[in-house]
């Protein structure tokens, strides 16, 4: 099992180039099979979740041609099987997008219940409610969702809660339904807009993405496209908080600053300087961070996927901060790990109460999920001494070349495979 070993204490300084948005890319790759023509997707992040989804797409018979680590061509004309194997699906959450894509195109799909990070119970009732409203029969059989329809027809769907996954899945199926669909209380995340733009570039007719009412006019056929995915606002935000926690100065390049506004606002509140450019943001942290409160919310609120990262910065801030998680019920699993590094974090219900300490000290910790894992790496970079982060397979789900990008900013971090390599690292860094 691979681990990260980190010698903390260096302010991170320099430039980092952000990759494509994982959570947009996963939906877009699934949607790419909805035409029989060849689709070219660019600016893909080189991360494990993408590799797993591409394997699943190949397994159902589509042709996948990797042009480079960030560019792929997909042709869905050879799909012979609408049932996806559990082997691929258990590893990722976004496998559920194959349901909307296959149901939209073939009116027939069989996809095992999804995996992904264990950050809450994560039901998908709203996805299924949407498919049923469009005329599909949906059953759970032997651990898989089986959805079939004679014909999918447009419908007026009210989501009970703001769900990124349900909004995108319904949007995909409705793109090839007969008639008009309206999704009310839709998610407004940038990746919802990106998927709508992608589908529209294939000939779909979707209006209103980015607002809470999305209108979709079904079309008979979708066609080929060439599409470049938006930058990953969560990867960008993670580096922004790495600058804050290590008292660094990082130019985060290839971003859409508008997508980062909630993160930027919090960084300014806690005492960082943030300078915005057309496609970059610079974060400078020169003094002790200040306390704040933060509550996760659907976009444009503060993202739940950035919650552990701000908590690490606040664990080093002056005063008491409260971090409230309102989307997922199990997203504080990093708290005990962070406490092992000297942080003062108490979890009460859906809030973490953080009393800032003067310093963190390196320890052996374990990544409980993707974003919490990245946050523990930031903690290690800010801490005095050596930190070992176990279970980095979670981090590899969503951060491309994480250790290389951090090393370019002056971090002392290495990916190691065993104790011998940890000892070697310790000898080298002294
Ligand atoms: C692959 C992907 O893109 N994952 C992201 C996606 O997850 P995901 O699409 O799973 O998250 P949702 O936006 O759907 O979930 C929001 C809330 O709604 C609840 N809910 C959702 C659907 C449903 O049918 N029933 C239901 O009760 C969830 O349990 C959660 O409490 O959006 C989350 C919220 O921004 C992010 O943290 C994840 O990184
Ligand atoms: C929770 C995440 O991913 P997933 O929904 O795929 O588990 C994430 O990207 O932070």
TrEMBL record:
Gene Ontology molecular-function annotations: UDP-N-acetylglucosamine 1-carboxyvinyltransferase activity
Transmembrane segments: none
Chain positions recorded as UDP-N-acetyl-alpha-D-glucosamine binding sites: 93, 122-126, 305, 327
GO cellular component: cytoplasm
Pfam families: EPSP_synthase
InterPro entries on file: Enolpyruvate_Tfrase_dom, Enolpyruvate_Tfrase_sf, MurA_subfamily, RNA3'P_cycl/enolpyr_Trfase_a/b, UDP_GlcNAc_COvinyl_MurA
Positions annotated as active site in the UniProt record: 117 (proton donor)
Localization in the cell: Cytoplasm
Gene3D superfamilies: Enolpyruvate transferase domain
Binding site for phosphoenolpyruvate: 22-23
Positions carrying 2-(S-cysteinyl)pyruvic acid O-phosphothioketal: 117
Main subcellular location of this protein, as a coarse class: cytoplasm
Catalytic activity: phosphoenolpyruvate + UDP-N-acetyl-alpha-D-glucosamine = UDP-N-acetyl-3-O-(1-carboxyvinyl)-alpha-D-glucosamine + phosphate
PANTHER family given in the database record: UDP-N-ACETYLGLUCOSAMINE 1-CARBOXYVINYLTRANSFERASE (PTHR43783), UDP-N-ACETYLGLUCOSAMINE 1-CARBOXYVINYLTRANSFERASE 2 (PTHR43783:SF2)
Family per record: Belongs to the EPSP synthase family. MurA subfamily.
Purpose of the protein: Cell wall formation. Adds enolpyruvyl to UDP-N-acetylglucosamine.
UniProt protein name: UDP-N-acetylglucosamine 1-carboxyvinyltransferase
Phylogenetic placement of the source organism: Bacteria, Bacillati, Bacillota, Clostridia, Eubacteriales
């Amino acid at each position: 099992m691979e681990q990260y070993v980190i010698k903390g204490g260096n302010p991170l300084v320099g430039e980092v180039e952000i990759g494509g948005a994982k959570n947009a890319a996963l939906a877009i790759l699934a949607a790419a099979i909805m035409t029989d023509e060849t689709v070219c997707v660019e600016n893909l992040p080189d991360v494990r979740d993408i590799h797993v989804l591409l394997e699943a797409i190949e397994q159902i018979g589509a042709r996948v041609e990797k042009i480079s680590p960030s560019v792929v061509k997909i042709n869905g004309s050879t799909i012979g099987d609408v049932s996806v194997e559990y082997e691929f699906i258990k590893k990722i959450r976004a496998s559920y997008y194959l349901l909307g894509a296959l149901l939209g195109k073939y009116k027939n799909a069989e996809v095992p219940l999804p995996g992904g990070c264990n950050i809450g119970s994560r039901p998908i009732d709203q996805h299924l409610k949407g498919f049923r409203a469009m005329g599909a029969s949906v059953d759970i059989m032997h651990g898989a969702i089986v959805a079939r329809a004679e014909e999918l027809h447009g419908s007026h769907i009210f989501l009970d809660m703001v769900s990124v996954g349900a909004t995108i899945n319904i949007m995909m199926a409705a793109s090839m339904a007969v008639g008009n669909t309206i999704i009310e209380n839709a998610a407004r995340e940038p990746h919802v807009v990106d998927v709508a733009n992608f589908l529209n570039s294939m000939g779909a007719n979707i209006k209103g993405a980015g607002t809470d009412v999305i209108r979709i006019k079904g079309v008979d056929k979708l066609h080929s496209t060439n599409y470049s995915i938006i930058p990953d606002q969560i990867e960008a935000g993670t580096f922004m908080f790495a600058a804050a926690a290590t008292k660094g100065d990082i130019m985060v390049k290839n971003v859409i600053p508008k997508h980062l506004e909630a993160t930027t606002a919090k960084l300014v509140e806690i005492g960082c300087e943030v300078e915005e450019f057309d496609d970059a943001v610079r974060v400078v942290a020169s003094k002790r961070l200040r306390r704040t409160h933060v509550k996760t919310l659907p976009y444009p609120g503060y993202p739940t996927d950035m919650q552990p990262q701000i908590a690490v910065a606040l664990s080093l801030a002056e005063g008491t901060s409260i971090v409230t998680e309102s989307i997922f019920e199990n997203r504080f699993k990093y708290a005990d790990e962070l406490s092992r590094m000297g942080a003062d974090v108490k979890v009460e219900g859906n809030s973490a109460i953080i009393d800032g300490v003067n310093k963190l000290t390196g320890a052996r910790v374990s990544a409980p999920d993707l974003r919490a894992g990245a946050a523990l790496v930031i903690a290690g970079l800010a801490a005095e001494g050596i930190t070992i982060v176990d279970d980095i397979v979670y981090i590899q789900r969503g951060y491309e070349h994480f250790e290389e990008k951090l090393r370019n900013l002056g971090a002392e971090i290495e990916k190691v495979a065993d104790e011998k390599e940890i000892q070697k690292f310790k000898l080298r860094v002294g």
